[in-house]
Design goal:
With about 250 residues, this protein is of the alpha+beta class. It has two domains: about 60 residues; about 170 residues, 2-Layer Sandwich (Beta-Lactamase), CATH 3.30.450.40. The chain has six helices and six strands. The chain has a six-stranded antiparallel beta sheet with strand order 3-2-1-6-5-4, with helices on both faces. Helix 1 runs antiparallel to helix 2 and helix 2 packs antiparallel against helix 6. The longest helix has about 55 residues. It is elongated. The N terminus is likely disordered.
């Protein structure tokens, strides 16, 4: 049975719990400091209490900020789990059309987010893999790639869908192909898996019309992303775009 969605209650927010737990202590220390500072004989105690109140205030701000960051990270994990489910649906849908099996290498999917720089006048220059591959082995998430190169970089830069196949069977010819056609440096090209023979990249456009992420699909089979497979992948990615706009507002 699928349970009904739950909403986070106020007492489940770590930052709020931290804030409420320290306010009475800070107020008590501050009031005690003020009362003792008025009396000459207890002024020293008042100073100590005032320092303690300031220390508690500073440490409490740090704790609340830390708790807020934990809440944010937890929400991100939950949102990524939803995205993982969307990728699994994408893989299953495309695999059924392309007759691929889990782990056979004929189809893998993942997603990369565009890392937007903090400076508003700078263009994004990095893509980061958000989740492990679905459908086959691959390197771990959080790998970063230059947006200037590769099929995912082109999809991100041009806000368009691309599908392509490897043209060369020899390894050195393949490296030259990546450098010539996909703007890789030679050192970056030699890190790319040599076992993939076709690729597809679908930009996930945000509400502002810019590319926020790129869904990446690859296959060990040349010309895999054509015809019905291509159309099915594109239609499924439209659903991921809708989900991403709702989950990552």
């Amino acid at each position: 049975m699928i349970p009904a969605p739950t909403q986070e209650r106020f007492f489940e927010k770590k930052w709020l719990v931290e804030f409420l737990s320290v306010v009475p202590v800070i107020v008590a220390a501050a009031v005690g400091a003020m009362l003792n500072l008025r009396e000459e004989s207890r002024r020293s105690l008042g100073v100590v209490l005032l320092i303690a109140a300031g220390w508690l205030l500073l440490s409490s701000v740090v704790k609340v900020l830390h708790a807020h960051a934990q809440d944010r990270d937890r929400k991100r994990v939950e949102d990524y789990e939803g995205l993982r489910g969307a990728l699994r649906v994408l893989w299953s849908t495309v695999a059924a059309v392309g007759r691929a099996a889990d782990g056979d290498g004929r189809l893998r999917v993942t997603i990369h987010r565009v890392v937007h720089p903090k400076e508003k006048d700078r263009d994004a220059d990095t893509l980061e893999q958000m989740l492990p591959y679905v459908g086959g082995p691959g390197k771990a998430a959080k790998r970063q790639f230059a947006i200037r190169s590769g099929i995912i970089g082109r999809a991100a830069r041009e806000h368009a869908v691309f599908a392509a196949s490897r043209q060369s069977d020899g390894y050195e010819e393949y490296i030259s192909e990546l450098v010539r056609d996909w703007s890789f440096t030679e050192s970056d090209a030699r890190v790319v898996s040599a076992g993939r023979r076709s690729w597809m990249a679908v930009p996930i456009l945000g509400s502002a019309g810019r590319t926020d992420a790129v869904v990446y699909l690859d296959s060990s089979e040349r010309d895999f992303f054509q015809g019905t497979v291509y159309d099915t992948a594109l239609a499924a990615c439209a659903g991921i775009t809708t989900y991403a706009r709702e989950a990552f507002k």
